[in-house]
Amino acid sequence: MKNLFCSVAAFCGLLAVSAPLAQAQDRTPAINARQAQERNRIRQGVRSGELTRPEAARLRGREARIGADKRAARADGVVTRGERQEIRHDEQRTSRAIYNQKHDRQVRRY
Questions:
Q1: Which pTM was predicted?
Q2: Residue 87, class by beta-carbon neighbours within 10 Å (0-12 exposed, 13-18 middle, 19+ buried)?
Q3: C-alpha to C-alpha distances, 101 to 38, 52, 57, nearest whole angstrom
Q4: Deepest in the core among 15, 46, 82, 108, taking most CB within 10 A?
Q5: What distances in angstroms separate CA 78 from CA 3, 33, 51, 75, 109, one per listed residue?
Q6: How confident is the model over 38-87, as pLDDT tens digits?
Q7: Where residue 30 falls among pLDDT bands split at 50, 70, 90?
Q8: What is the DSSP letter of 103?
Q9: Is the pLDDT of residue 102 over 90?
């Protein structure tokens, strides 16, 4: 009887710990995908010479701020619709900045 009670208590404790972890899953898969895509665009721009090093550094800084905003939004376990919209808006502005910097006719000198 004691073993059964210990088993049930351990199971309930495990269940209590795992439930919040399951709810705190990443609710930002589209944001993650877009961040990865933008990192690749910056990397490609540096490789091709379309982005100068200072331009790339500024763009990476913007990406880092978006990542910090995303972490702050997830800190309470819930990313609200408003937080998601704000992050997406920042991503759109960064995407336009990447495009503009890649097409501004400044090239990296070798």
A1: 0.71
A2: buried
A3: 13, 9, 12
A4: 46
A5: 38, 19, 36, 7, 46
A6: 999 999 999 999 999 999 999 999 999 999 999 999 999 999 999 999 99
A7: confident
A8: T
A9: yes
Query: How far is Cα 62 from Cα 69, in angstroms, rounded to an integer?
Result: 11
Cα 60 from chain centre: 13
| Three-class DSSP labels, 17-78 | HHHHHHHCCCCCHHHHHHHHHHHHHHHHHHHHCCCCHHHHHHHHHHHHHHHHHHHHHHCCCC
Give the relative orientation of helices 81-102 and 53-74 as an angle to the nearest 10 degrees: 170
Contacts of 65-72 with CB under 8 Å at 24 or more apart are: 65/90, 66/35, 66/90, 66/91, 66/94, 67/35, 70/28, 70/31, 70/35
